[in-house]
Each structure stands twice: as structure tokens, then as C-alpha cells.
Design a protein that fits this description.
Structural class: alpha/beta
Oligomer: single chain
Largest sheet: 7 strands, mixed
Number of helices: 14
């Protein structure tokens, strides 16, 4: 068991990294109490992880029930939120209850948003089951839903009571999902830690072999990197925005293609675009851009989008939440391990960078 602590004043919580669910109930009792536990998951996760997770909770003597929703990004909407509200009302859930988000980033975001708003706020626990959610979305308290085709446009900052990572859960993922999750892992190395980036690049093969020691080390380092950023800037007033590296381009691509591409695939393209913009501005070196592209390809991630609709993607970029005074805010690399902010309203530059993805 590896333990990482997130130290946001007044909102401290632990992250437990292990390879089973046997201690989940005990930790929930310690940090949340013994009120009703409602597990929120989707059909895909329930098939492979539901029994093991529910069994661990029931064995701890907790009062447990679950709601299973359809899987997919298209479920991340207000209709799904309403469905869960109705379920909670039917179960007479009170403020002593805890919601458990068992799944990937979509389930984590949905469950966190429900927890933040039901009865003006109840406890929730993140139990991420994908590399992407273990590396990124389960830590930091960003919760919310998509709306009118725009990603994460409605939401809140609401921290979990704890995060419980069972790295063995990713063994049941489709290979495409494993690849997609690695985009966020690689991102963390690029923005803060060149040594970690190199470790991930050197261990791609071991990741796909589901080496437990490698997976636990990667989860620990991801949580340490993101945790330090979140502790400094919980609500993205400054430093935390570096976690959006690759996302200004990536989110727009994701929205423009109606979420048919996985989030990590779009982030991979966004990382390449960010490097290409930095190269055009003489901020970064070609050798770093090449190394990052090679690593993304080695992880099975896309670095080109031949059919990209530049005008459509650009239009979605103009809805980015980080736009200020008519300018888009980008996180651009100086080198592997260091990034900086760059704001611009230069449509010609942005479209030129999008064209490099063809």
C-alpha cells in the first residue's frame, strides 16, 4: 500500500495506491463514517469491477447500494445527473451518505458533481479504474458535465474525502483505453519532471504487461506531481493551469469530433500541437518535440489527424473556459519538464498550428 496525501488547507485527503479492494471499506469508515454508501458506476466497469468492489464494501459491514448507468462520454450530461438525483431520493439518502465513484473520468466527474450539489454537498470517494483517471481526473476536485457540445462547461471544484487506486483494475480495460490514459501520464512528465517522462518512455512495454510495481510507481508519481500543483492552486487561479497542457487544442478536437475520439487521444494531439506552436514561436527545441512524438507513438497514441476540420476545431476553441479578454491561454513547453503560459488572439497562428496536425 502506497499513501500520498493531498494537503489543501481544510480539505486534506489521502490517496491509497494498492492492487485490490480489500481495504476500501475500512478507509471509507475511517474518513467518511458509516452512513449509506452509494456506488455510482457504468455498465462496462460494473461487469468487470462491480462485484469485487461491492464485495469489499459489504464485507466491511457497510450499508451499500449501487446505481449503474450507461457507459460513455455522451452520458456526461444533466439528464444523467437528474437520473442519479432521482435514485438518491428513492433511497432516502441523507447527509451522512457517501457516494463512491467507481470508474473512469466520466464517472468521477458525474459522481463528484452530484455529491457537490445533492443536499448542498455530501461526501464522495474516487475509485478510479482507468489509467487516465488514476493519473489525472480523480485527483484535484474538478467535477462537472458537458453541455451543448462543450466539454466540462458546467461544474465545480469539490474535493473527495479520499482516493483509492487499485492498479490491477486497468487489466480489464480495452487496449485503446490503456493507450489513451498514457497521454495524461506523459503530460505530467512534460510539465514538471523530465526524469519521470523518461521513466514512462522507457517502461511502455512494462505498462502494457501490467507490471504491478511499475503501475503503482507511475500512479504515485502522477499523484505527487498533480497533488503539489493542486495544493498550491486549488481553483486554477494560476499555477494549476499548467495541468491543461495539451488540453486547449485537445478539448476543442474532442468537442469538434462529437466525443468519438477518446480524451487521451485528443490530449495526445493537443500535446503535439502545443510543441508545434512552441517551435513556431522559437520557445522549444525540435529534439524535444521529436522525443515527445516518438514516446506518444510508442504508447500507441495519435500524433496526426489527417481529416482535421481546422475551422470547426478553431470555433470550439473560442468556447474555451480559459479564454480571457478575447485571448486564448495556452500552456507551451520550453523543454521537457518545464512549461510556461502564452496568451494570444492570433487566429492565423492558431490555425497554422492546427494545420500541422494534418
Amino acid at each position: 500500500m502506497i499513501n500520498v496525501n493531498i494537503n489543501i488547507p481544510g480539505k486534506e485527503y489521502p490517496i491509497f495506491i494498492t492492487s485490490d479492494y480489500k481495504d476500501l471499506g475500512r478507509y471509507i469508515k475511517e474518513h467518511c463514517g458509516e452512513g449509506k454508501i452509494v456506488v455510482v458506476t457504468d455498465q462496462n466497469v460494473d461487469e468487470f469491477q462491480g462485484d469485487a468492489c461491492m464485495g469489499g464494501l459489504v464485507d466491511s459491514g457497510l450499508d451499500v447500494c449501487d446505481i449503474v448507468i450507461k457507459a460513455g462520454e455522451d452520458q456526461k450530461n444533466l439528464a444523467t445527473i437528474e437520473e442519479i438525483y432521482s435514485y438518491l431520493l428513492g433511497k432516502n439518502v441523507d447527509r451522512s451518505a457517501t457516494l463512491v465513484a467507481l470508474g473512469g473520468g466520466v464517472i468521477g466527474d458525474i459522481t463528484g458533481f452530484v455529491a457537490a450539489t445533492f443536499l448542498r454537498g455530501i461526501d464522495f470517494v474516487q475509485v478510479p479504474t482507468t489509467i487516465l483517471s488514476q493519473a489525472d481526473s480523480s485527483v484535484g476536485g474538478k467535477v462537472g458535465v458537458d453541455f451543448k457540445g462543450e466539454k466540462n462547461i458546467i461544474g465545480s471544484f469539490y474535493q473527495p474525502k479520499l482516493v483509492y487506486i487499485n492498479v490491477k483494475s486497468i487489466e480489464t480495460l480495452p487496449v485503446r483505453e490503456v493507450k489513451a490514459g498514457l497521454a495524461e501520464v506523459i503530460k505530467h512528465g512534460i510539465i514538471r519532471d523530465a526524469d519521470f517522462f523518461n521513466y514512462v518512455s522507457d517502461n511502455i512495454e512494462n505498462i502494457f504487461k501490467f507490471d504491478s510495481d511499475v503501475l503503482q510507481y507511475i500512479a504515485e508519481q502522477d499523484c505527487l506531481i498533480k497533488g503539489k500543483v493542486v495544493e498550491t492552486d486549488e481553483k486554477e487561479a494560476g499555477l494549476r493551469a499548467i495541468l491543461n497542457f495539451g488540453h486547449t487544442f485537445g478539448h476543442a478536437i474532442e468537442s469538434a469530433y462529437d466525443f468519438k475520439m477518446l480524451h487521451g487521444e485528443c490530449v495526445s494531439l493537443g500535446i503535439v500541437a502545443a510543441f508545434n506552436m512552441a517551435l513556431e514561436l522559437d520557445m522549444a527545441k525540435q529534439k524535444d518535440a521529436d522525443l515527445v512524438s516518438e514516446t506518444l507513438e510508442k504508447a500507441g497514441l495519435p500524433i496526426k489527424l489527417p481529416d482535421i476540420d481546422i475551422e470547426k476545431v478553431y470555433a470550439h476553441m473560442l468556447h474555451d473556459k480559459k479564454m480571457k479578454s478575447g485571448k486564448l491561454k495556452f500552456v507551451l513547453p520550453k523543454k521537457i519538464g518545464e512549461v510556461e503560459f502564452y496568451s494570444t488572439d492570433d487566429a492565423k497562428l492558431i490555425k497554422s498550428v492546427l494545420k500541422t496536425l494534418k
